[in-house]
Amino acid sequence: MAVHVAGLDWQSIADELNAHGYAIVPGMLTADECIAMAAQYGQASLFRSRVVMSQHGFGSGEYQYFRYPLPSMIAALRQSLYGPLADIANRWHEAMDMEARFPADHADFLARCHAAGQQRPTPLMLQYGPGDYNCLHQDLYGDHVFPLQAAILLSQPGKDFEGGEFVLTEQRPRMQSRVEVVPLKRGDMVIFPVNHRPAQGGRGVYRVSMRHGVSRLRTGSRHTLGLIFHDAA
């Protein structure tokens, strides 16, 4: 997994993030890996908690947070993706004049989170059925926030489900929100901001506030793996 991640075109990924607020990595997982990963949703021993969205006003559907130790593939993805994303995150924070900087190794960043009381793992799997959706939101979880996250679609659009598009919105200062519908196939990974991203304006760089969600599922079943790099309080 680390070799695969290192071989990605990280300059193109950074360029897409800067230009559009997200980047798609096609075929991050194979179909068989996606099927095996989605099947883990029924293994209660892998998870620390289950959230039914309708009970909290988050939408409709449910998700579960993995417990430590994470399954080996999820741990490998989280570790190997963090380093290249930390380079992008540090450039973003410098551009936005934000103080926080991120160490090169994920273990060092997690140590920072844990010392501040953010000790609960945040990788999660989401499950949607007909009529389910996820309201626009941000995955913050505490004072220490890594500014990028990733999601991998584990189900095949048009076969396993209809509808259920991944959606991003950006709120630009003194302007209406802009919406982006992100086209994903099974196994594709999307990288996107947790909260803010830099954008170039006529007077220099400014902060754009981002939110993400999932539109209403019309038919079928949809599973997604979410990779968040900070832990929760």
From TrEMBL:
Residues annotated as domain Fe2OG dioxygenase: 119-232
GO MF term (any one): oxidoreductase activity
Keyword terms, alphabetized: Iron, Metal-binding, Oxidoreductase
Source organism superkingdom: Bacteria
Family: Belongs to the iron/ascorbate-dependent oxidoreductase family.
Protein's name in the database: Fe2OG dioxygenase domain-containing protein
Species for this entry: Rugamonas rivuli
